[in-house]
Amino acid sequence: MPVYEYEHLEEPCERGLVFEETQYMNDLPLTTCPDCGRPVRKVFGAPRYLKGQKSNAELKDLGFTKLVRRDDGIYENVTARDGESKIMDRRKPETFPHLHKTIQD
Fold it and tell me: pLDDT tens digit string along 15-47?
């Protein structure tokens, strides 16, 4: 789930002037602080990113699919799971990764 930043519009509480809140993407933005009830607004901070590179095994464990181009329209699925083809050919849909198995809320 994404983490959003909120800023107190009045005096801050114990959470501080700016605090983070984990919410679903389709949740409405907060208008009041969950702790003190004072008004807040959503602020846009720098996007989070992964520090350092992850190995193919770590990417697979995190639910990512990594395709490495080998030829025109031919890719190697270096994070292939059970039942998936190790080689993906754009002309053969049966070789595409099973994304519906890895995409979750």
Answer: 899 999 999 989 999 999 999 999 999 998 666
Task: Phi first, then psi: give them for residue 37, nearest 5 degrees.
Answer: 80, 5
Residues 36 and 69 in one domain: no
Please indicate, yes or no, whether the overall pTM of this predicted structure exceeds 0.90. no
The structural domain count of the chain equals 2
Neighbouring residues of 104: CB distance < 8 A, sequence distance ≥ 6: 63
Residue 33 phi, psi (nearest 5): -70, 135
Token pair listed for 58:
């770590």
Taking a C-beta distance cutoff of 8 angstroms, is the pair 83, 97 a contact?
A: no
49 part of a folded domain: no
Residues 74/88, Cβ–Cβ less than 8 Å: yes
Q: Domain containing 13: what range?
A: 3-43
